[in-house]
Amino acid sequence: MSLANDSDRKSRLKVGVDVPWVTSWSAEAVGGVGPCPSVGGRLALRQGEKPGFGRPIYSQNHFRRQRLSIRDMLCPLCGRPTQAGDRWSQTARRVPAGVLRARGLFRSAPETASDEQVLLDCGAIAPGHRACMERSLSQCPHLGGLANSPLLAFPDVWKVSAITVAATGPPGPVAAAYAAPRPPVAIAFLQLCGVTDAVARRWRTRL
Ligand SMILES: [Zn+2]
After folding, report:
1. CA of 76 to the centre of ligand 1 (A)
2. How far away, in angstroms, is 60 Cα from ligand 1 center?
3. How far is CA 44 from CA 28, 90, 168, in A?
4. Least enclosed by CB within 10 Å: which of 18, 110, 144, 163?
5. What distance in angstroms lies between residue 81's CA and the mean position of ligand 1's atoms?
6. Low-confidence ranges of the chain (pLDDT < 70)
7. β-strands 43-47, 93-96: how paired?
8. What is the rounded CA–CA span in Å between residue 73 and residue 91?
9. How far apart are CA 37 and CA 90, in angstroms?
C-alpha cells in the first residue's frame, strides 16, 4: 500500500490561470545539478516537474521554467510566448549601464551599451503580456503593493546573463549571484537586462 502524500495532491488552482506558470509547487523538489537543455546543455540546478500539485510557493520560481521564460521570452504568468510590442514589466528598474558597472555588475550590463545608456534591469523576472499583467494585478494579493507602479515597456534589445552557484554542495539559496564564474558552477536562474533608447548623461550623480 502506498501512502499518498497530501502535500502532493493535485491542486484545484490552475497553472497559468490562478497561479503564475513560473511559480514553484510544493511537489517539485529541488535537488542536484545536471545538463539542462534550457541553458544549451550546461550544468544547471534541477527541480522536479509537477506544476499544479501540492501548493504553490509564490516566493520561489521553478528553476527550469524560470530559465525558459527568459531564454524564450515566455510570459511568466501564462507561459506562452510574448511578442515584441507586448512585453511589459511591473518590477524592472531603469538604471544607467554605468551605474551597474560601477557596482561591479558587469555581467548584467550589455557590453554594447554605453555607460549613459538607460537599461531596464528585469532581474530574474521575464516581461509578460499586458493582458496577463493587468489581470494578475487585479487578482493577486501578493502583487497589491505593485498596483501603483506603471507597466514598463520592455525594449527590443536585451542581454541574458546567468546566476550561478557552486555545483558542489547542496543547492541552497542563490548566494553566489553575480560572483565570478569559477568552475564547476551550475546555472540557477537566468536574468534579463533590456537596452532602452534613453540616455542619462548625468548618470554619475547616481553613484
Ligand atoms: Zn501571458
Report:
1. 7
2. 19
3. 16, 27, 12
4. 144
5. 8
6. 1-6, 140-148, 168-183
7. unpaired
8. 16
9. 28
